[in-house]
Amino acid sequence: MTLRRRPLVASLAAAAVLGVGRASARTAVADHAGRMVDIPDASRVVAIGSSVTEIVYALGAGDRLIGADTTSMYPEPALQLPRVGYMRQISAEGVLSLRPTLIISTTAAGPPAAFDQLRTAGVATLVLPDDYDFDSVLRKIDGIGTALGRQDAARSLITASRAEMSSLADKLAQAAERPKVLSLLSVSQGPPQAAGRVTAADGIIRLAGGTNAITSYEGYRPITAEGALAQAPDVLMVSAQTLQALGGVDNLLAAASLALTPAGKARRVFALDALLLLGFGPRTPEAARHLAAFLHPELGLATAR
User: Fold this and answer.
1) Pairing verdict, β 235-239 and 269-272
2) Residues 100, 125: contact at Cβ < 8 Å?
3) Element (DSSP H or E) covering residue 222
4) I want to staple 164 with a disulfide (CB 3.0 to 4.6 A). Which of 26, 242, 247, 285 is the partner?
5) What is residue 133's predicted lDDT score, i.e. its pLDDT?
6) DSSP 247-299
7) Tens of pLDDT along 69-119?
8) How many helices (H) and strands (E) does the chain have?
9) Cα dihedral sign for 16, 18, 23, 28?
10) How far apart are CA 300 and CA 163, in angstroms?
């Protein structure tokens, strides 16, 4: 008699669904498209996306996490979690090998085929919106809170976040102008990549009372010296990690004639931790306030929380 092997995904799915005790009440949560996702058990969670991981910890449910993607580097306990790969290159088999009962991700993750495999394997897979605005942050907090049975903690976090953003908006209403910000990525590898519309950089610039210097395209594209000069930015924005890798402001300004822009001449360079600045998670009000304080020093915004 010849034994036939079951496909690995199917075998792992059976272990995920049948091999784990159900520790939480059955619930259902609306995903990014408004479809209801049935969640019978939220005791073993894999988080895909740094904002998802941060929210789980912020809601006091970090003990549920059994794995996360490689972008999940905050808070510190997240660094000890088993990794399931980069969020845009997820392998279904790698995720299922951890025997999760719930996978939480955002629309920024992929590829779609991997998520189709996860759903086919029978594991509850909740995909929440990642639209680089404050509303999607609140929707993520609400959805994750419901999925994990942490509704009260989610409501408290949403209330505090709304109050902080409302206070910031009131201050920004007094600003006389909205400085033009050029956000750059991968500065040390060929021409810098400049952030256009529908990016995390564009979103945080708007929340902080600035204007994105790039409005002609979506996503990131290389920018030439001529292009940087034509945009005439008032401020250059990079991650703290990028600035450190370059060796400081002088080396940044040496790229693509950035020293000749209004921002370069005034040495107006804003840098902040990448996950804090662009994560669009529970720390987004903090990131917006840091950037707003830099863009609008006349408003006297405090950055300490």
Assistant:
1) parallel
2) no
3) strand 220-222
4) 285
5) 96
6) TSHHHHHTGGGGGGSHHHHHT-EEEE-HHHHH--STTHHHHHHHHHHHH-GGG
7) 999 999 999 999 999 999 999 999 999 999 999 999 999 999 999 999 999
8) 13, 12
9) positive
10) 18
74 Cβ contact partners less than 8 Å away, ≥ 6 residues apart: 50, 53, 54, 275, 276, 279
Q: Burial-class residue 80 by CB neighbours within 10 Å (0-12, 13-18, 19+).
A: exposed
Residue 154 confidence (pLDDT): 98
Residue-wise pLDDT for 132-170, tens only, equals 999 999 999 999 999 999 999 999 999 999 999 999 999
Buried b (16+ CB within 10 A) or exposed e, 178-211: bbbbbbbbebeeebbbbbbeebbbbbbbbbbbbb
> To which residue do tokens 């996490």 refer?
65
Q: What is the dihedral of CA 78, 83, 89, 94, to 10 degrees?
A: -140
pLDDT at residue 187, as a whole number? 80
Q: Do 187 and 255 meet the contact criterion of CB atoms below 8 Å apart?
A: yes
Distance CA 134, CA 130 (A): 10
* Spatial distance between the Cα atoms of 176 and 58, rounded to a whole number of angstroms: 35
| Strand partners of residue 75 | none
The number of beta carbons lying within 10 Å of the beta carbon of residue 216 is: 9
Amino acid at 12: L
Residues of the chain with pLDDT under 50: 1-24
Q: Which amino acid is at 179?
A: P
pLDDT at 302 (0 to 100): 75
Tokens, residue 223:
């920018």
pLDDT at residue number 138 = 97
Q: Are 237 and 231 in contact (CB under 8 A)?
A: no
Report pTM: 0.89
Instruction: Give 127's strand partners.
Output: 105
Lookup result for tokens 């907090």: 141
